[in-house]
Amino acid sequence: MQIVRGYEMSSRIAVTRSLFILFASLSLARSGLSAADSAFWIEEEISQYFHPLYIQKQFYDTDQIVLHEDDPHSPRQRFSREDLEQVLLSPIYRFPTTSHAPSEISRIGDRSITGYTPRERKEAFALEESSQSQAKGHSLTAEEKEALRQKISREMPIRNDKYVDEAEGLALVSKPAQDILSTFLKFDDYDIFPVVKNYLKHAEQLSEHYIRSNHTRSADELIGELRSNNILPLPPDVYYQYSRVQIQKPDFFHTLRFEVKRTEETVSRGEGNRTETFENLPTLRVFWAIDPYFNDHSLFGRYGIFVNSGYLQLQPYINAEGEIFDGPGGFPGPDQFITMINYHIYIKFDPSVPQNDVSGYLPRARETTIGNFIENMVVFLRNN
Q: pTM score, two decimals?
């Protein structure tokens, strides 16, 4: 593992759910057996319409987090490094505008309503830039690129989805990443088992305001369905979960697919010509989305919700002195585990279900509800 350091001179309502929904989970299936090729697709799909990392990037660039600085609907919030380290606060940010998910663009079928995804605009720009450069015989100038960018924006608008809540949060937990992941998924390697046995314990720690336990089906039933449709055996690091959850008024159930990815990545901090780079940081991410196979399933189908996607990112924490808290035998630094959790969620309830129409709530109320729920989940991850 290499650390590169130096100064480069050149250059929240009744909404959103549970990124940690499985603490309300009522059935979970897991297979540790190898399987025929089954592509991991969730990360690629959500990258088409998710906002890029916002809070974590701001924290590493500026050593603080400032939210709602120019938002007239929400009070300005400032979080220092000490706030995070002393577990005083966990910043939660609800994005004021969102794009439509590809599945919603397909379902609605009217671009005047849904607009386009950021990925579609980016790809259209790249294609047109290449075409114009070839026709002109030279690369486009900065002015020509800006004109093209404005043209693409007019022709391919991104329409805000008022029924969506997309949010990002950041927290520090003094545990190894793998332990946090295991708590999040609540599995033992190479086992298939229901988490119903843990439900009562979880319900005691989480507000009943968010969880309702009826409409349950056993993990064995879900396993049987996966097996009968040749979805089992699952590849390593793929999980399925069926659950019904209530978050304040919205009430929904669905079958989620989870995909875990392990990588080593580079993290930079600082701005301008004063940057510091840390290479090969071990990174764990778990991505999830509603599996479209189960959308209209008679037993494990989707109701009251259109989209529930997100990811949980886990990386060793880097303090102000550049020490990496990756535990004994890890990077040079304290023999202590502190993991930075970044969670990103995107949820769209079905507004045709009366109690699930959240569009009339004020943005601040929607963010508050998201924040309260995620705070409960962070406490759960810290204490279990």
A: 0.81
